[in-house]
Automatic annotation (TrEMBL):
Alphabetical list of Pfam families matching this protein: PIG-L
Source organism per UniProt: Rhodococcus xishaensis
GO biological process, one term: glycoside metabolic process
Residue stretches spanning the membrane: none
Protein name as catalogued: PIG-L family deacetylase
Amino acid sequence: MESIPEDWQRGLVIVAHPDDIEYGAAAAVARWTDQGKDIRYVLVTSGEAGIEGLHPRHCGPLRETEERRSAAAVGVTKVEFLGYPDGRIEHGPDLRRDLARVIRLHRPEMIVTMNHRETWGPGFLNSADHRAVGLAVLDAVADAANEWIFAELTEPPWTGVRWVAVNVLLGLTHAVDVTATVERAVESLCEHSAYLEALSDEPVLDQAARQIEMSTGPRPGFDAERAVGFELYVFGG
Ligand SMILES: [Zn+2]
């Protein structure tokens, strides 16, 4: 198992929902911001359908606030929400165009996104939003680089994406040593306190610590006490 390349400066994390980054990938983000890298977050929805009993009108703003706090806990200050409907994101030209636009705006060398496959492992369905966003992010790298596919975009094409790291549990090809940053990943997930309190009666800190423990275990063939795994896609750059 190889390390994720770290010879880059600008990274963009694109996911469907507030909390998607915090269930593991944030430990890698903390390591990278400690190295002085510029990391920004783009959330396709505001997660407004995520809390039972709380109307989306109130839930969306609450979850945006929690996401901004989570980001700050790992050194990320730029967080953007695209306003797609939570639970009903569709893969297609509209989503690809909007993601191509944000890639052109932020000009990342490294993009991090969520698992786009149908399952997390045998018998564990991945959500429709995660499938749509992950695949559209991969597609949007080429869209951002091409001046003609979405000719209506006014931002100049960006051809500098070198990698997309897809956060997966199975089928990983690369990993990041997060031994030094797991505690900050726990703090980052704890910022989703309203969400976690609605999920379970277990104290927020206990839930967060348990989740991060599960998502940052040692990886076979990778020399680190704690690691986050990715499937790495390589682009021209
Ligand atoms: Zn999600």
